[in-house]
Amino acid sequence: MPLKDVARHITREAVLNGLVLTDRCMRDAGIARPRIAVAGLNPHAGDGGNFGREEIDIIEPAVTAAKAQGIACEGPFPSDTVFLRARRGDFDAVQTMYHDQGQIAMKLMGFERGITLIDGYAFPVCTPAHGTAYDIAGKGVANLGATRNALLIAARMAKRRDVDDVERARRLRSMLTKVAAE
User: Fold this and answer.
1) What is the rounded radius of gyration, in angstroms, for the C-alpha atoms of the chain?
2) How far apart are CA 157 and CA 29, in angstroms?
3) Are residues 126 and 155 in the same domain?
């Protein structure tokens, strides 16, 4: 959605649902008790209401509700510094309020290895953080690191979930074995 529409779509329920999904996704990826940071929407996370009230009225109450459900989360934090703390090891994941708020930071921290995890489906969805790279397709110049990481995480997540489709699980293991051998 356009950036101009983001604020009206941020609700306590949406932030809380995002935290529940992030916690589940990270657990499926192999982190037993993920520590999740939540980015604020506004500059300086609203600066105590000086730059907007979304942090006070919406995001902070959602974080409190998630904590009450046993989710290890903190925030909201200013988005210009929260990724430094995550890179330092303070957090395992950062939940952002809109796409580029997270993607810009992730691409700067690891364009060739970063992945995006999307949860809420019956199956894991993991993509290279850099996207499809259609602009360099077939040129023999692509770095496969992020694609490989996405496949490995998807396989790990699928293994941890109940997979009813035995054939699909077998194909996924076969792909994982091929990638791991490269």
Assistant:
1) 18
2) 5
3) yes
**Strand pairing of 125-128 and 115-118?**
antiparallel
pLDDT digits (tens, 9 = 90+) for 54-110: 999 999 999 999 999 999 999 999 999 999 999 999 999 999 999 889 888 888 888
pLDDT tens-place string over residues 155-177: 888 777 655 555 655 665 666 56
Among 59, 90, 109, identify where a domain stops.
109
Residues 62 and 50 in one domain: yes
Cβ(126)–Cβ(158) under 8 Å? no
Cα-flanking dihedrals φ and ψ of residue 90, to 5°?
A: -70, -25
- Among candidate residues 109, 143, 164, the one where a domain is terminated: 109
**Helix/strand/coil percent split, the chain, to 5:** 55, 10, 30
User: Considering the entire predicted model, what is its pTM?
Assistant: 0.78
Cβ atoms of 47 and 54 within 8 Å: the answer is no
CA 21-52-47 angle, to 5 degrees, is 90
Asked if 128 and 68 sit in the same domain, the reply is no
* CA gap 88, 28 in Å, rounded: 22
- Residue-range definition of the domain harbouring residue 165: 111-182
Residues 46, 120: one domain? no
